[in-house]
Amino acid sequence: MNGSVTETLTIKKYDMKSLRVIKLPKGRFNKSGVYIIVNKITNKKYIGSSKNIRERIKRHKSLLKHNNHHNKYLQKSWNTFDPDDFEFGILEYCDSDLRFDRERYYIKLFDINDLYNVCVDPHRNMVEKNKRSLLLLDLYGKVLRYFDGGTDLAEWLNCDIIAYGNVNTSSILRKQYRVVTPHFFNSNQELIKSWKCFVDKNHNKI
What we know:
Elements: E1 12-15, E2 20-23, E3 33-39, E4 45-50, H1 53-65, H2 72-80, E5 86-93, H3 99-107, H4 122-130, E6 134-137, E7 143-147, H5 150-157, E8 178-180, H6 182-187, H7 189-194
Parallel strand pairs: 1-5
Antiparallel strand pairs: 1-2, 3-4, 3-5, 6-7, 6-8
């Protein structure tokens, strides 16, 4: 059979009162807001926010599918249960500048033990991540540049933000780079050298 198969992304509206997910019409998800990932078996949840909910949820699904998600608790749960046991929903749309505040609001509605989230303050978590030193590598593992943090790297790349879930992984940035911390680089030379030095259609990208 000719042609490529594109995975359908289903995003739904999450009803906080009844704790259930309601399907929404297509084409309304390229907006800033707060989203939720729900394990329907355990009712455990992951809450996040993004400038583009649709793209962020697609990224979550890709990382989980490739066993490369930055949240080890969510990844372990994904590996334990069937992918159909998870639902991806929208909590609300909001202005981009308000998304961290709204994410914090929803996180605080739940007991922390009912969440996969590790950090209850997403803005503080982002600020701390942006202060981490980073190395830009080529696909052969050679260090190209050193950056004081994610903000400097994003500015150099002329992009809005660095996806920290892909730092210290084999994920490829702009089809030619990888991003790691100095500590990871010094401790995992053999692993880095074992990563593929080319891009294929199934390989994760930042």
